[in-house]
Amino acid sequence: MALPTYADPLERAWYYTYLAICTLIFFFLIVPIIVVIPLSFNAEPYFTFTQKMLTLDPTGYSTRWYDLLLTFGMNAPEVSRDSSWWADAWNNANWINAAKNSIIIGFFSTILATVLGTIAALGLSKPEMPGRRLIMAILISPMIVPIIITATGLFFFYSSIGISHWTIFGWKIPYLGVVLAHATLGIPFVIITVTATLVGFDHSLTRAAANLGANPRTTFFKIIMPLILPGVISGGLFAFVTSFDEVVVVLFVGGLDEQTIPRQMWNGIREQISPAILSVATILVIISVLLLATIELLRRRGERLRGITPH
Amino acid sequence: MKKTFILTTALTGFAFAANAAEVTVMSWGGAYTKSQVEAYHKPFTASTGITVNSVDSSNPAQPIKAQVEAGNVTVDVADVEFSDAVRLCDEGLLEEIDTSMLPSAPDGTPAADDFIDGALQDCAVANIVWSTVFAYNTANVTGTPTTIADFFDTTKFPGKRGLRKSAKATLEMALMADGVKAADVYAMMDTAEGIDRAFAKLDSIKSDIVWWEAGAQPPQLLADGEVVMSTAYNGRIFNAAIAESQPLEVVWDGQILDFDLFVIPKGAPNKEEAMKFISFSTSTTALAAQASYISYGPARKSSGALVGKYSDGKTDMAPHMPTAAANLGNALVNNFEFWVDHDAELNERFNAWLAS
Amino acid sequence: MADLTTNVAIDNHLTTADGKPLKAALAAAQARNKRRAFFLVLPLLAFILITFIVPIGQMLMRSIDSPGFILQTDVITKEETPLMVNLGLWFKDNPQGTEPDEAAYTALVSDLIALKKTRAQGQAGTRINYELAGSRSLFTSGARKAAKLKPPYKEAMIKLNKKWENPKLWQVMRSASSRYTGSFYLAAVDRTRDANGDIVRVEENRRVYVNLFVRTLRLSLLITFLTFILAYPVAHLLATLPMRKSNMLMILVLLPFWTSLLVRTTSWMILLQSQGVLNDAMVGLGLLDDANRIQLMYNEFGTVIAMTHILLPFMILPLYSVMRPINPSYVRAARSLGATSWTAFRRIYFPQTVPGIGAGALLVFILSVGYYITPALVGGADGTLISNLIAFHMLSSLNWSLAAALASLLLGGILILYWLYDRLVGIDNLKLG
After folding, report:
1. Are B216 and B148 in contact (CB under 8 A)?
2. Which of 1.10.530.10, 3.40.640.10, 1.10.3720.10, 3.20.20.70 would CATH assign to domain C209-429?
3. CB C401, CB B351: distance < 8 Å
4. Contact B302, B114 (CB under 8 A)
C-alpha cells in the first residue's frame, strides 16, 4: 500500500509505524529459522553465541558438529579417512542410516500418495462426480485429524492385522506400516494442489483431443498430464516433506530399527540437545530453501502454461 | 540413479541382517547403555559369537506391553525397574526365567544364595542396584547442600530444581525432606494424609521445577546451568563428574535404592540367545566388570569383592556405590509392592497436580 | 451442456444416429461419466478407508470395549479364555444394589482360583485398578491365597483383606463384568460411579481431564488470536505491494512453512532456554540480572510463542488470498467521499477480509487443538495439551481405553469444527502456498 499523496502527517506517521510493525513480524517469522545456522558452527558445546563467535574470531567456529554427524555410531571413527572409513560411515553412522530410512520411506510414500491422489483428483474435478463434497472431506481428513489420534489408531490396527509379519515370497517388507501411514498423511496435499491446477482446466481441450481421434490414453499423456504436472510435482513435494518431517507415527508404529531423521532428532532433543542437532537442523533448512525454490519455479511455469499471468 | 543405489544397498542390508545369531537388548541409553555394552555385550559376542543389537528407550518397560499385545516383539531382553518387572510378569507379558540355570559364584555358592534378596524373580534377574539421588552443580550453588531437605529449600539455595516427571521417587523424597524417616515413608504414603503431605511439600517448590524424563537429561540440565540441583540416577552423575569432569556433586541423604532387572518379553524372537545373554551378563565377573564403567552396585554378593577402580584406572569405585556404608545413612529401599498397586492412582493424581 | 438439455426437453423425438432417443443416450452418457469419475476416485477412497478411517474407528471402539476382567487372550495363539465366569453369573442373577452374599463370595473364590491357573490375576486386577486404585494387589494376592481358603468364604475373604467388602469394589466388578462400558468416558470427564452406581465427580485433587480440555481450548484460542493479530498487517502489506516485491517477501512466510517442525521447535528451545539466546541477549544488554534469568520455556509461555510462530503461515496465506483481489478503488472512493482512513478501513476494507479471517482462524484453531510435538518439547508441566495426555496414557500408563476415550472426545470436537469449516469456507478452497 503506497502512501497516497493526500495523506496528512498523522497518517504518514501511522504508515511508517505500520511498516515497522510488519518488519518486526517478518523478523519473528524468520529469525528462529536463521538462528540455528551460525550456532551449528559453534566450537563449544553450547546453544548460545559465545564471546568468540560475537567478535567473529575464527577459533570460535568449527565444523565439529557436522563431523559428529558422520562419526556418531561408526565402528572406528578415529582411523584415517580413507575409503574404508567412508564405507564405515556409510554403513554404520546413525545419522546416515536415519537419512537412508527417511529417504526410502519418503520416496515410496510419495509415489503412493501422488499416484492415487492424482487419479482421484482427476475424478473429483469432473463435474459429474457424485457426492463430491463428502468424498473430498473424507480424503482431506488425514490433514485435520490430530496426529496423535492417527498414530494411536494405526498402532492398534497394524497390531491386529499383524502387518509386521507380512511377507512376499518369504521376504519381510520393511517399513510397510510407516510407508502406508505416510502416504495417507501426504494424500490431502496432493489432492489440494492437483485439484487447484484443475480449477482453471478447460475441459473442451480433452473433447477437442477426442474429436481429433486421440484415445483416452493419448489424451491423458499429451493434454492433461503436461497441464497438471506442476500441481502433481508440488503435491508430491508436499507429500515428501510431510513424510520426511513426520515423527509421531514413526514412534508409534515404526520398529526399533526404523530410525528416521525426525525420530533421531526427537530422541536427541528429549535427551540432550547436542549442537549436532543444530547441524542437522541447518541441513534441513537448506533442503527446505531448495524445495521452496522448486515450488516457486513450478508455480510460475504452471501459470504460464495455463495462460494465467500474475496481476 | 543414485536413489536406486541407496535403495538396493539399504534393502540388501536389511535382508542379510536376519541370518546371523543375534539378540536385541533394550536399555536406558546414555552412559548406562555404554557401560553395559562394554561389560556385557562385547565380551558376550566375543565368547559366543552372538551379535548384540543395542536399542534405547527412556523407560524400556513401556514398549513391552505394546509389543507383546501387538504380537510384534522385536526385543529379546529388556532392562526394567523392579515394580515394572513384577507388574509385567503379573500380566503375563514376560517369559518365566529358570533361575537355576544361572552360574554359581566362583566359590561355588549357588546363584540363588549369591544374589541379594529379591534380586531373583519369576520373570526377572537383577543386574544392578541403583539409586535416585540428588546432585548439584558446585559452580552454581553457594554453600553445600547436605540433606534432602536442602533440595526443597529454595530460600537457602535459590535456583531451579530438576525432578523426574513421575510420582515414583518424587513423593518419597518430598516426604523425607519434610522430616519423615526413611523407615516410615511407605507407611505414611499408604494414608491419604501422607500423600497430601507429599504434594504439599512439592507445592512449595512447584514454580521452580524443571521436569525431566530421560536419564541423560539431569547431567545435561546441571551442566548447562538450566537447573542448580536435580534428582538423577546416581551413575549418570558419576559419569558426568568423573568421565566428563563436570563440577557435579552427589548428595546421598534421602537416596532411594532400586533394582534394575533383565526380563524377556513373551514371544521374544531369540529366546534361547536371550537366556544365554542373561546368564552371561549376571555372572559374578560380568557384574563386577560393569561396576568399573558406572557406579551402580552389582546384584551378586560375590561381585562386591571384585569391584575395583573405574576404567580410568585411578578412581576408586567403592565410595561412589549407592550401597557403600557411608551412603546408606538415610536411604530408602523402593517398595515395589506399593508402586505396583498405586502407580496408576498416584500418577493420575500427579498429573492432576501438574496441570493445576 | 445446459442448453443441450433444455433443447432435449423441448423435443423428445430427436434420435441419435443408431436410433436411440437422444434423451436416453445422453442420460446413458451422463451415467457413464459419473461412473468413470467415481472409478477414478475409488482406489484412493478405498485406501483412505482402510488405512485411516477403519483404524480410527477400531481405536475408538477400545474406549467402550475393555474385556480385561472377563476375557483373557493368549498373546501368541490369540486363543480366548473366559474369566470370572461364576461371578458373572451371580451378577446376572442379582440386580444392582444386592448385598454380596455367601454365594457371591463362593463364586469369587472359585474364579480367583481359576485366575491363578491361567495367570490372569494381574490382567483382571489391572482392569479393576483403572477404576478403583489399589485393587491390583488385592487380586494378585487373593489369587495366590484363594485355593487355601475354607468356607464360609465371605468371612474368610474379608479376613484376608477388608477391601473385599468394599461396596465400590463390587460395583466396579459388576460394571467390568459386562464387556462394554462407558466408564472410560466418565473418567475422561473426571466423573466416576459411586457404590450405588450414580455418577459423581472424582475427588478434587484427581480432576485433570476437564481442566486440560479447557486449557487446550484456551491456549488454542489465544494462539489463534495471536496469529490473527500478527498475520493481518503482514498479509495486508503482501497484498498491497507490487507483485514482484510481494513475491520476494512471501519467501519469508513460505520458508518457515516448508521448514521441518522439529527444526522450528528446536530453534525455539535454543532461543528460550534460561541459558539461551534471548536471556543471554537481555543479560548482555543489561536489561536483566544474570541471577534472575526469566523462565521462558517449559511453561505455557513457551508453548504459546512457539506454536504461534509455527502456525502463523496458516493464517497469513488465507488472509493474503482474500486480500489480494480486493480492489483498492473502494477505499479510495470512501476516502474521497470524506471518510477518515480509519473509517474507510473499518467500514470498507475490513468487511471484505472477513472470509479470509474465518478460514485462517478455523484452520489454525483446528490444528492447534490437536498439537502434540511442540507442547511435549517446550511445554513442561503447565504448557502441555490434551494430546500429550493421550500420549501419556498410550505410552506410559498403558491405560489404552482411557486414551481412546480422550481421543474420541477430542476427535468429536475437531470433526464439528471441520464440518463448520466446510460449511463456511468449503474444503475446495483450502490452498497451500
Report:
1. no
2. 1.10.3720.10
3. no
4. yes
Chain C residues close to A299, C-beta within 8 Å: 433
* Helix/strand number for chain A, H first, E second: 15, 2
Q: CA-to-CA distance for B303 and B268, rounded, in angstroms?
A: 29
Residue A26 resides in a domain: yes
Chain C 23-62, CB below 8 Å of chain A: which residues? 30, 33-34, 36-41, 43-45, 47-49, 51-60, 62
In a domain, residue A95? The reply is no
Whether residue A148 sits in one domain with residue A235: yes
Could you report the predicted ipTM of this complex, rounded to two decimals? Answer: 0.88
Amino acid (1-letter code) at residue B67 = Q
Judge whether residue C226 has pLDDT over 70: yes
So where are chain C's domains? 2-61, 71-206, 209-429
Residue A300 lies in a domain: no
Q: Examine the domain organization and report whether A1 and A128 are in the same domain.
A: no
Least CA distance to A1: which residue of chain C? C240
CA distance C137 to chain B (A): 6
C270-325 pLDDT, tens digit each: 899 888 888 888 988 888 887 778 888 888 999 999 999 999 999 999 899 889 88
- Cβ neighbours around C145 below 10 Å, total: 15
Q: How far apart are CA C83 and CA C122, in angstroms?
A: 12
- What is the per-residue pLDDT across A96-147, written as a single tens digit (0 to 9) for each? 999 999 999 999 999 999 999 999 998 888 877 888 889 999 999 999 999 9
B110-141 b/e (C-beta count within 10 Å ≥ 16 → b):
ebeebbbeebbbebbbbbbbbbbbbbbbeebb
> Strand runs (DSSP E) across chain B, as ranges?
22-27, 51-56, 77-81, 124-137, 161-164, 209-212, 229-233, 248-263, 297-298, 332-333
Of B342, B348, B354, which is closest to C206 when you measure between CB atoms? B348
Angstrom CA distances, B84 to A63, B61, B262, C205, C310, stand at 43, 6, 11, 25, 38
Domain encompassing residue A111: 100-271
Q: Are residues A105 and A245 in the same domain?
A: yes
- Does A137 map to a domain? yes
